[in-house]
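Problem: given the chain below (426 residues), write out its structure.
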Amino acid sequence: MSACRQAGVAMALAVASLLPLLPATAQAAPDAAVLNAARAAEPAVIRTLEEMVQIETGSQNVEGLNRLADLLQQRLQAMGARTERLKATRGPGGPIVKASFEGSGQRRLMLIAHMDTVYPAGTLATQPMRRDGNKLYGPGIADDKGGLAVILHALALLKEAGWKDYARLTVLFNPDEEIGSIGSGELIATLADEHDAVLSFEPTAAKAVVKQESLLLGAAGTATAEMVVKGRAAHAGAAPELGRNALIELSHQLLQTRDIAKGVPGAQLNWTGAKAGEVRNQIPESASAYADVRLTAPDAADKLQAALNQQVAQKLVPDTTTTVTLTVGRPPYKASEAGRAMAQHARGIYAELDGRPLALAPMTGGATDAGYAGRSGKAVVLESFGLAGYGYHARDEYIEVDSIVPRLYLASRLLMDLGAGKVALK
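Solution.
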């Protein structure tokens, strides 16, 4: 998912604990044509993954992102899409790929995934692509080049079948999800509001970790807290008593606010960086720190800001001032009732594959662009249609090869059912 997380562990725990609570889904026969097409597409999906992973696309790597955008745009145009290359409004300047298909149906559908990874240029030199049994390794292969591949090949499969049961189908690939979608989030939110349903293609956790693939029903929003302390400079050797040590006060404030989010439902705060002082022999007159903040309740940001303001008023060093600024980023994602109903429908599709189970993870501490897509509540949004994998943002990231056919089948069949009106969106 995003720069904001190593979501696999949290998702794994959620999925593992949830499945027994969910009702069983009736099993129907698979759509033989779709299943056979998905099976036939597996080698091509692997080739696409290999081609994409060989293009390094860290969020700051504009050259690599443009190369990947070229590849994706060409693939989408070959399927008959009208494509646009847009520029992110903020950030490093990576491209956004938008593609539109015009159909003959009634519903407006949108598919989203991200092109960027967290890996710096040169990572392939020490983490080359390799296959070991059911695991295919490569930087960013699960998060989120697997999602890109599922979209491309599901659409190719459906085009080959002649499927056009939609009024408009929009595909959006952004270049900055791993840094908070700072230049694409508003576009995602705006476009999502023009559609009836949005499917997001972040990865699902590997079966080697959680036993069952899943869809995601909730993800935290993100924010950043910055604490700034103002004191007074003085000579650290000759007259330290004339100073007001901002570093000492910062330390005091960090300690007394470290657990403050525990009293705010739907909030989590962790101080992760600090800075103070420029030279050894001067009492520092300023100090600052920043925190990673996660939000899962609509009013959590305001309540956390109020709690921080009240707490930092309690000083240790006199004549210092402390301010805390909370800047909200990506909104939280919570599947609506219609989204949950769509997830149950997806479970039925998965069960067509010899009763294959599909878990529904209630929440992850990570953050995803589903938060932007679902911000207004106008579109029905569901997350994690990408490939099963693990090791996101770490060494030896991988996907499970045996998830390719089921995830292609799921995405294709769900799009078909959405177009046919078999999934309620109200």
